[in-house]
Every structure is written in structure tokens, then in C-alpha cells.
Amino acid sequence: MGPQKGDWINEKYCPSGVDRLNKGRVPPLTIPPYGPAPMTPKLLITLVSLVFFMPGCGQSPDTLAKIKEAGELVVATRNNANCYYHYQGEPVGFEYDLAKAFSNYLGVKITPKVVEWESLLTAIATDQVHMAAAGLSITPGRQKLVDFSDPYLEVQPQIIVHRSGVKIDRLADLYGQEIHVRQGTTYQEILEDLNKKLPSDIKIVLHNDVPTEELIRQVSSRKIPITMADSNIALLNQRYHPDIELALDLGPDHSLGWAFKKGDSRFNAQINEFLTFAKESGLYDNIYNRYYNDGHIFDYVDLQVFHRRLRSRLPRYAGLIKREAEANDFDWRLITAVIYQESHFNPRARSHTGVRGLMQVTRDTARRMGVNNRIDPNKNVHAGVKYLRTRYDYWSHINEPDRTKFALASYNIGLGHVRDAQKIALELGLPPDKWSGIQQTLPLLREKKYYQRSKHGYARGTEPVLYVSRIFTYYDILRQKDLDWLPVELAPDQNKRLIKKPSAP
Length: 505
Known about the structure:
Blueprint: H1 41-53, H2 63-70, E1 72-77, E2 85-87, E3 90-92, H3 94-106, E4 109-114, H4 120-125, E5 131-132, H5 140-143, E6 147-148, E7 153-155, E8 157-162, E9 178-182, H6 186-197, E10 203-207, H7 212-220, E11 226-230, H8 231-240, E12 244-249, E13 254-256, E14 259-260, H9 265-281, H10 283-292, H11 303-312, H12 314-327, H13 332-343, H14 363-368, H15 377-394, H16 402-413, H17 415-428, H18 435-441, H19 448-451, H20 462-480
Helix pairs in contact: 12-13, 12-15, 13-20, 15-16, 16-17, 16-20, 17-18
């Protein structure tokens, strides 16, 4: 029996249930449910491995006993924004957070193990992991190889385009179009089924082990015209690529579940007990809304909102910002730009990764900076500016303005990922200590051929580049703007980074 409600859950639950992810969108095309994924060489190896390692008659695997004995839950997952990655030095991701909650429920630690997409089921069969939490659809073909938990999420396959690109409003608009999808996925099968049943003549371009998130990024950057993604992945990535459009629901809803070794009824019962508890207690909604709730997305690039909030919100925090900026030898207008980018001057802001407050401080950063209340504006800004100063000091060998840009990128995505980007820059012959080089290599940390060789793995590397660019846009506006109307505790000095109180006449 797992712990009772409230024993180990520290987050405040969101009381509302999870709405259907395709609510309010174009009704889905009705086609027969898909079967097993298309056969590939890697999948053939998986099938052979599963047959060889499948328990014989009379044998019943007891995964739960192994987990309890080892004191850890080893979980196969994928290194991407939906499943598992590191953000500001902390592991995050919807699948990771839900699996971590399960490990807490069992009273053991979690050990995530990043596995190739087509090796997920083999990892289970060969006892490399106890289960897979990787956004796996429950399909008849996969159910022949592994067992699945009860479904924890219903998703809808969707067509994704660029907002200013090709217009897809109905099924007929797809006829003759070029659609890029990952090989061996249900997306491939849905499109192939359409071509068989309808005169659609869709040009299906297959990518070998290229994450769906990467294909979405390529749509956003107009490298490809159209891709497909499940609704949960599409919603999550819309945060990072606001110029993509979820154009059309395509195919039937399908369920996601955790996979584990066949015949392990005891472990199955324990997982399903946890999932029921998580949904009834509000834990599941809390984790879900952390990643997929699209009710509040910051309008980062709306400069009209920026100017408006300078007048409506900044006066409340101007003195605090100037005080902490001076204490850490920063221009207060730079810190103002950072705070606007992070929270829009909202002291109760909370991102889907759990960072909080005016400067979106992590729990670990607050602890290291000696702060115990991230919601308190004074403590939050104190911790955030002090932490930014440590990042700035680290890059002391780099000249301005690149030094500030390196510090901001490290604050946003973590020092380790910036160091990884430097190593890639060296390999590519780019300057590792120049922002002009790093802004080219940080986005490469989304690509498998780069992140699999990097110490800190996958990263949403496009984000810190946009983050730094937006902050410097806001900073430039603030430096040129007449701010005499603000509460005067510290006056701007156009020539110095350190802002000092005005001298007596």
C-alpha cells in the first residue's frame, strides 16, 4: 500500500480536471485505429530480443520486489522537452515528473535512463530498466511485446504548420502536400493509411530518429512546411515556438501508458494504484498543468505591453531592483529587463518547470542564495540578482558585452549547457568565447548528433538565444527611455555599470 494523501506531496494541487487536448479544434478525421508500427531493422532486433528474453512457462517476473530491494526505480525515457531533460541544473519533463512521483510513492529513488526510441522495449525485456515512461502510445503491436499500465493521457494526432505558411483547414488541404514525420511512428502509419484510402497523394518524408520536437522547430524556422505531433507535444512546443499553428486534428484519439515486462501483474497493479491515487488527489493535474496548460503564455515580444507595464508595475519594484543591482554591481535597467522577461513584474509568476517569482528562481538556487521564500519580492530579487552575479563572475575572462550575454544564458539554461555549446563551437571552428559563436551552437544541443556527445545532454538551446536577444531589446529601450517619473532612490548613470546614488550638488 502506498502512502496516504498528503504524506509526501508538497505541491499545491490544481483543482480542475484535465480537459481534452483537442477541445475547440477541428473535429478529427474518422479512420480505423492503427495497428503496430511499421517494421524497421531496429524494430526487428527488438522483436528478436523480446522473444529471446521473454519469461518461460511458470516464471513470473517480480519487478516490484527488485525495485524495493535495490531502493531505486530505473526508468527508460527520451531526452527531449516532453519526457526528460535538465533545466538550470535540475531534471524536469512531464514523463520524468510523473515517474518521480511514482518513485516517491514507492519510497525509492528514481534513476532515469535515456534510451533510443526503438530500443525502449528491448531495454525492458533485457532487464536494463524496470519500465519505460516515454510518451508511448498503447498499440496492439506493442501490447504483444510488453504490458502497459492503465492510460494516463489521451492525445490527438495533429497537423502542424507555420502561421504564415500553407493553410490547412480541412482534410482536402493536405492533398499533394509534403509532410515530414519521424520514421516508425504512428504518424507515419496514419499518413500511409490516408494515401491508401483516399486520393490524397501526400508526400511523406521520413526522418530516422529525429525527435518530433525537432521537426516542430524546423516548421517554426520554415525549413520544412508541415509535420505531425500528438496534441500534448504540440501544446508544449507552442510555448517555445509561438509562430507554429495546430492546424488540423488527424486520426483517432489514442492513449499513452507506461510499459513494463509482460506478465508482471503485481507491478501492473502497483502502477495503476498510483495513477488512480495521482488523479484523485490532484497530483496528476498539478504535473499536467505544469507543462500543458496553455491558459497563460507570456507575451514576451509585445513591446506595447512592455511599455504599459513599465508604468503600471515597475514603480512597485523600482527601488528594490535598484538596491539589489547596486549591491551586485549591475546596471539596474539590465536587471529590470531580466525581470520583465522572466515574469512581467509578476511576483507570483510560476513557470511550467516550477521556477517562481519576479526572477523565476529555482528552489535549489534560492537555497544556495540563503532564501527561503521565493514569492517574497525582496527575497526573490535578492536571490536572483546574487545568483546572476555568480554567473557573471564565472565568465570574467570574456569581454563585454559578450560577458553579460554569457551570464544571462547561463542563468536561463544552466552553466553546463553553455559549456557544452563552447565545446561544440571549438569543434566547428567557431569562437567559443564570443556570443556570435555560442548563439550558433546552443541551438545544436537540440540535435541528437550533438547532445548525445555533450556532458549535460539535451537542451532547448534555442531558448537562451531568444532570451538574451529579448533582454537586450528591453535593456536598450530602458537606456533610451525617460524614466524620471519612477520613484527616485537611485539615479541612472549612463556611463557606469554600477548605479550610485546622485551626489549632493
